[in-house]
């Protein structure tokens, strides 16, 4: 089964990646240059919430096995990013610092876990779960089994 890519969403993701790069480049001068500071504030006002929204839009986790597979890929990518930083800085602090390069991957792993919980466990827990299950049936084609 082939899927058709949405070029608008691809364009939005490209723009967000470019804004991340610009934001990181102007970050050191944001306190000394008013233009850099203003641009930095505007970029960070919306680009991360939009990244999170798009990540949720494309999220597909229907079983614990899928979550485990995605988690392993996220952790592998996290380690590929973080081990060179560890070797450069000679400190375990890079793995624990929330400002490091891999924070988004670990956040995605947690968000996927929450999504799986909401799809599989929450509907079976309470009266509110019944409302959520009805909403899920209207919005989603796949269920946890």
Account of the protein in words:
The protein has 145 residues and is an all-alpha fold. Helices cover 72% and strands 0% of the residues. It has helices at 7-26, 34-57, 64-89, 93-96, 103-120, 127-139. The protein is globular and about 55 Å long. The two termini are 22 Å apart. The model has no long low-confidence stretch (mean pLDDT 79).
What would you call the structural class?
Answer: mainly alpha
Tally the beta strands: 0
Note the gap between the termini: 22 Å
Arithmetic mean of pLDDT = 79
Count of alpha and pi helical runs: 6
What composes the largest sheet? Answer: none
Uncertain runs are none
| Anisotropy-based shape | globular
Q: From N to C, what is the helix and strand string?
A: HHHHHH
Rg measurement, Å: 19 Å
Share in helix: over 70%
Strand residues, percent? under 5%
In short:
The chain has 6 helices and no strands. The chain is mainly alpha-helical and 145 residues long.
Secondary-structure map:
Blueprint: H1 7-26, H2 34-57, H3 64-89, H4 93-96, H5 103-120, H6 127-139
Helix pairs in contact: 1-2, 3-5
Q: What key attributes describe this structure?
A:
145 residues, 72% helix, 6 helices, mainly alpha
